[in-house]
Design brief:
The chain has 470 residues and is of the alpha+beta class. It has 2 domains: 199 residues, Metalloenzyme, LuxS/M16 peptidase-like (Cytochrome Bc1 Complex, Chain A, domain 1); 207 residues, Cytochrome Bc1 Complex, Chain A, domain 1 (2-Layer Sandwich). 40% of the residues lie in helices and 16% in strands. The strands form 2 sheets. A 6-stranded mixed beta sheet has the order 1-2-6-3-5-4, sandwiched between helices. Strands 7-11-8-10-9 form a 5-stranded mixed beta sheet, with helices on both faces. The longest helix is centred in the middle third of the chain and has 17 residues. It is globular. About 6% of the residues have low confidence. This is Insulinase family protein. Keywords: Hydrolase, Metalloprotease, Protease, Signal.
Length: 470
């Protein structure tokens, strides 16, 4: 199960593409020759407007289009206690009109211009974006700034939208054995009402309890200029862009950043062993183990990049330790490892496996944990493993420049959780600076000492095996 942010997903996609297309001798060379000055990935310009809004711009002339991404530094992790799903519910209601745009008209206007738009809610942010022809930046800037400043949130549209969200939950979660398992596992590991243990879409009973006043208050409290980030990229001259940004977005009322006030991880895992049998399961079982882990914003932040490298060498593709031991060893169909240092507050480091149908679950769990123990008992990975992981993770960095949405997703996501622009612009250099000893330290701190939970999703009638720990 991957809960990576968009920046990490782009890193992984770029690395996979690079490994598939670059010759072996290219991967064997240092990613940056000695003496060559590191260049930023995007060359973004970052300013803070007088009202507190942080704005980043990346000029991109590859096509006559522009992408505008607006982020609020609040996601599902900021939902009020007992009201999980408020941030996501409000995301839906943001399409219900503003002073200059009628309800439902936002997306229709974008479509008439030949563009596309959408929105998303994650644990850490709520984002809204539009891709349009470059000359239409003024239009989407006006519309987006208008709803950020004064979304209508009509009371008579709350109930119909609640039904849409409940249907979304039914389709994406309740109808999926895996989705229900992953949701239950997170609640077991963090606590059902801990910000990290609540589903972003919300628990069904709490979605039903959200009121119009809850939505209005969340918008009033969180959608402030100082609590938002705007990132734009495309074929627009820099001077023209900043004129539009100051005219449209500079008109937002000033407002300060809003503290997230997230609770610390639980000292003890509420339910360290979680299993679920589902009669609908027709495919393979799933095994998970997750450890509480620091990020670049919380805990031992210096372990962030070393944990990224550890994730890759442990479960990042065909050359990883888990793939070699379980997939090549004939025990599992697939394996993986998940971790992302770009998180607001604490996060988790996870490994997973899908056993072959003919293989007993206990053999898979034993093999997985044996690999973790081998890593820890051996004092961490080898120098060669670390070097290989870093080469693979950074070799495809330039491919991230090709997608129009890459810069605003990576930059906006980082800025919205409080990381500096340099975290994105120079992440290949930051990874190349990671040493074997740092990865070994990170492995011991998290895999060797941090609280953890494990879980099994199994077909009906198949008992969960006894737990195995490293």
């Amino acid at each position: 199960m991957s809960r990576m942010t968009r920046r990490a997903a782009l890193q992984a996609a770029a690395a996979c593409a690079a490994a598939a297309t670059l010759p072996a001798e290219a991967l064997a060379q240092p990613a940056t020759p000695a003496g060559v000055t590191e260049r930023p990935l995007f060359g973004a310009t970052l300013r803070t407007l007088p009202n507190g809004l942080r704005v980043a711009f990346v000029e991109n002339r590859r096509a006559p289009v522009v992408a505008q991404y607006a982020y609020v530094a609040a996601g599902g992790g900021e939902d009020p206690a007992g009201k999980s799903g408020v941030a996501h519910f409000l995301e839906h209601m943001m399409f219900k009109g503003s002073p200059q745009v009628a309800s439902g008209e936002f997306s229709r206007r974008v479509a008439r211009e030949g563009g596309n738009d959408n929105a998303f809610t994650s644990r850490d942010v709520t984002g809204y974006f539009q891709h349009v022809e470059a000359s239409r930046l003024d239009l989407v800037a006006m519309m987006e700034a208008d709803r950020f400043a004064a979304a209508r949130i009509p009371a008579d549209e709350v109930e119909p939208e609640r039904q849409v969200i409940l249907e979304e939950r039914a389709q994406r979660t309740s109808s999926s054995p895996r989705a229900l398992f992953f949701e239950g596992f997170q609640a077991a590991m963090w606590g059902r009402q801990h910000w990290a243990g609540r589903p972003i879409i919300g628990w069904e009973e709490e979605i039903r309890a959200i009121t119009h006043a809850d939505l209005v208050e969340f918008h009033r409290a969180r959608y402030a200029a100082g609590n938002a980030v705007l990132v734009v990229t495309g074929a627009v001259p820099s001077d023209s862009f900043w004129q539009v940004a100051e005219a449209k977005w500079g008109a937002l009322p000033p407002g300060p950043p809003v503290p997230r006030n997230r609770a610390a991880p639980p000292a003890e895992i509420p339910e360290p062993r979680y299993s679920r049998n589902d009669p609908r399961l027709r495919g393979e079982a799933v095994f998970l183990r997750d450890w509480q882990a620091p990020s670049l914003t919380a805990g031992e932040t210096r372990l962030g990049e070393p944990l990224e490298v550890l994730r890759h060498l442990l479960g990042g593709g065909t050359g990883s330790r888990l793939h070699h031991a379980l997939v090549e060893g004939g025990l599992a169909v697939s394996v993986g490892a998940s971790y992302d240092s770009d998180a607001a507050s604490w996060t988790d480091f996870g490994i997973s496996a899908v056993p072959r149908r003919e293989v007993a679950p206990e053999r898979v769990e034993q093999a997985m944990m044996a690999e973790v123990k081998r890593l820890l008992d051996g004092g961490g990975p080898t120098e060669a493993e670390v070097a290989r992981a870093i080469r693979q993770m950074t070799a495809g960095a330039l491919l991230a420049l090709d997608g129009l949405g890459a810069a605003p997703r990576m930059i906006g996501g980082a800025l919205a959780i409080g990381l500096p622009l340099e975290t994105v612009e120079f992440w290949p250099a930051r990874l190349r600076a990671v040493t074997r000893d740092q990865v070994a330290e990170a492995a011991e701190a998290v895999l060797g000492k941090a609280p953890s939970a494990s879980g099994w999703l199994l077909p009906e009638g198949v008992p969960a095996p006894a737990e195995v720990r490293a």
